[in-house]
């Protein structure tokens, strides 16, 4: 048991970028499901926020933003960390993931405003995804 844990930790240490990609993609899937659910409430009176408050638009947006995250999670679970690191569409998926996070930070800055700086966290995730993408090119 102890040796399995050590081997798992060794695999994580050697493939740390893949683990970071998995975490960022998994968080995006959870966030997209939250946006598509009726639990998401827009608390702004801006025009764009009123449009985003429509449940059909919110559901479509929540499903669309999870599109680049599903293959990353699927291929890492199916193929494992070592085989995923050689996947041919990895760069494209990371680029799409960073664009989605940058879109979400811009959307949040527009709907909520600049001063409650909650959008800075999604912007940071977008920059982390972009750095991972630039590292591969």
Give the SSE layout.
Blueprint: H1 2-14, H2 16-36, H3 47-52, H4 55-64, H5 69-84, H6 90-111, H7 119-136
Q: Quick gist of this model?
A:
The protein has one domain. The model has no long low-confidence stretch (mean pLDDT 85).
Q: Helix coverage percent of residues?
A: over 70%
Number of domains: 1
The tally of strands reads: 0
- The end-to-end span amounts to 38 Å
Largest sheet: none
- Low-confidence parts, pLDDT < 50 over ≥5 residues? none
Order of helices and strands: HHHHHHH
Q: What's the number of helices? A: 7
Structural class: mainly alpha
What does the overall shape look like? elongated
Average residue-wise pLDDT: 85
- Rg over C-alpha atoms, rounded to the nearest angstrom: 17 Å
Beta-strand portion reads under 5%
């Amino acid at each position: 048991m102890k040796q399995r844990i050590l081997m798992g930790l060794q695999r994580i240490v050697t493939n740390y970028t893949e683990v970071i990609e998995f975490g960022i993609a998994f968080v995006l899937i959870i966030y997209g499901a939250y946006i598509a659910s009726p639990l998401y409430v827009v608390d702004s009176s801006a025009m764009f926020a009123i449009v985003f408050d429509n449940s059909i638009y919110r559901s479509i947006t929540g499903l669309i933003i999870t599109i680049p995250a599903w293959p990353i999670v699927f291929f890492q679970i199916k193929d494992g960390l070592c085989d995923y690191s050689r996947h041919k569409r990895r760069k494209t998926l990371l680029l799409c993931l960073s664009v989605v996070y940058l879109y979400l930070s811009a959307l949040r800055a527009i709907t909520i405003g600049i001063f409650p700086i909650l959008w800075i966290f999604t912007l940071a995730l977008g920059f982390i995804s972009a750095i991972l993408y630039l590292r591969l090119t």
